[in-house]
Amino acid sequence: MGVLEAFSNFLERLGGKTIEVAERPLSRLPEGKSVSERIRILKELQKEIEAEKEETEREKELETIIEWRKQEITEPFSERLAETMLHYFRGPIERLTKSLKGLDEDLYKASILMPKDRYVALIFAVSLFSGIFLFLVAYLLYQPIDISLLVGLLGALGGFFYMRYYPKMVWRRRVAEVERALPYALRHMAALLSAGVGIAEALLSVAKADYGVISEEFELIVRDMKTGASFEDALTRFDEKMASENVSRVVKQILRAVKFGGNLSDILYKLAEDFSFEYRMKLVEYVQKVNGIAFIYMFLTIVMPTMFVVGILAGSVMAQALMMPVETFALIMLMAFPAISLIIINMIKKAEPR
After folding, report:
1. Residue 123, Cβ density class (10 Å: 0-12 exposed, 13-18 middle, ≥19 buried)
2. I want to staple 257 with a disulfide (CB 3.0 to 4.6 A). Which of 23, 199, 249, 264 is the partner?
3. What's the pLDDT tens digit per position in 258-305?
4. What is the value of pTM for the model shown?
5. Contact 279, 353 (CB under 8 A)
């Protein structure tokens, strides 16, 4: 018995020394403990290490999610909306994409950098939300369900046609901005040409300047030339994209001067003066038109609604009953007269000289 007890004490001391040497860097292990207690402490330490690893992994996952959210926020809402609609309505959107002809060219002219299928998905989304919104508005105004459905259908069709022709509206607005900034860009180029700078360098200088849309378009011309297109092809492509009489005049004069020779600087100065004079004359005509339209606008948006309310109230008092349902009256006041105002504002905006 004495020999067995001595051998057991020897093994216990040997095991303690082994654990002490193996775990010496871990200062949390108490000294003078038995083997079972040390094993229990090691298991607890292992659990703590695993918990720390799991916490580290969760932190990494959170960092990944935060980074993904940042990228999602930087992405335009229209792109995210189009992707969502493509995910849920891919079949109808693809069929609608095939049926819309000429949309690619309209997107190119408007410089809308969005694939055709995504833009069609955006059209689908706007049409859907417009229809639902107007249906809810009509329904909340206590209109019959068939009238509400008709209003919703008209809203969906209105949203569809608006988004379909939106690239053309953007293109016309860009052309107007190009024509408005054209005299300044031509003077810029003429000054550089008179100083001995080449035509390509002059185009690049205008592209780097802050002339708005025309700087963007000149940057595209320079990019086409860098990718292998000739100077004539790049300018011709710009002319076809703008489809503007003023831009066509400038392009033809530049190409003629480059091909047959001539003082291009003087030509550009002369064109800039001509465009500035034409714009001033159009501005005078525009002011005269606005003065005439302003009276009509005040009558239709201020006087007519007042007369309408007074007439309804007077007729109701004389008849001792409402001449018009409250819902119809609210619909006219909230939608009809604001629509007239928007139409007149749009007319004034369209009459603005380019």
Report:
1. buried
2. 264
3. 888 888 999 999 999 999 888 888 888 888 877 777 778 788 788 888
4. 0.67
5. yes
